[in-house]
Every structure is written in C-alpha cells, then in structure tokens.
Amino acid sequence: MSNQTSTINDRQFFQFETDFVESLHCIPMQVRLKLDTCGVKLKLTHWHQLSKQERQVLIQMPGTTPEESKIYRDFLQNLLKEKTGAKAKELALDPHPPWLNAREIPTDVRQKAAEFDLTIEREQWETLTPLQRFALIKLSRPSHENKNFLPAIKEFGLTK
C-alpha cells in the first residue's frame, strides 16, 4: 500500500488502520467520528455483536450533518436494541468539536507530538481534514496508550 489512505467501498481508512480494515474487528476512525457527531457511546463489545455486513452499513452511512447524524443515531440505536436488547449510552453533543477547529491545535495533540520531539504548526493543522484532526485528537488522549499516533503523524505528512 502507498503512504495514502486506503478505501474500501469508497470509504476512507487510514494506513494505521490497515491491520483491522478487512476484519473490522476495531471501530474505524470514520465510524468513531460519526459516533461522536451523533452522540452515541458505542463500546467495542457492541461493535463485535454486529455482523460484518451491519458494520459495513455503519461505515457506508453518512453522518456529518445534523440531519444525517440523527438518522445515523436512530439507525444505530435501533440496530443495537434489536441485536443486544439495549441501546447504547448517549452523550451530550459538543456544539464546537475541536476537530472542526482548524485554527487551534488541542493541548493533548501538542503534548503527544512533543513526546516524539515533534511540533505541529498551525499551518499544518489547517491543512488536515476534519477526519484527520479527529484521528489525532483520539490518538492523543492521555488516558489511552496508543501506538498509532506516530504512524498517523507520518501518514498525514506532519513530520519533516
């Protein structure tokens, strides 16, 4: 594979996700973004109870606008209720999510980059897509040890 994101069925996956893209045993970043956008806390145990086809539907469904997010949330919650007997926990929506702010690099991202002796400049942050910014935010959370932050930084062209 090249140093670009890959696609399956016209959906974007990052190179650092390639170890689970075919099996979909982990929740891809594009789905995690939709979950944060619609306010659903989907646990990995929930994800594993879905069939590969159902997971693929969740990947394919749009979920970035308020209307799409409502449809996505309702579809997912109904699917979970049908599969598990219970809906997932719902979270408050951030009216100004940090991945949509191209002008401000979150502190956690700056700190995680510093662990690798890297500095992300504002101009670099501005060139990233919302999905790329979302991925870096998720991969930099201090409560999670994550081996994919540096590969993501490299994939997004943020190293010199």
Task: Detail the topology: elements first, then pairings.
Elements: E1 6-8, E2 11-13, H1 18-21, H2 29-38, E3 40-41, H3 44-49, H4 52-60, H5 66-84, E4 89-90, H6 107-114, H7 122-127, H8 130-139, H9 149-155
Antiparallel strand pairs: 1-2, 3-4
Q: What report would you give on this structure?
A:
With 160 residues, the protein is mostly helical. The protein has 2 domains: 85 residues, no CATH class; 57 residues, no CATH class. The protein is built from 9 helices and 4 strands. The chain has a two-stranded antiparallel ribbon with strand order 1-2. The chain has a two-stranded antiparallel sheet with strand order 3-4. Strand 1 and strand 2 form a beta hairpin. Helix 2 crosses helix 5. The longest helix is centred in the middle third of the chain and has 19 residues. It is globular, with a radius of gyration of 16 Å.
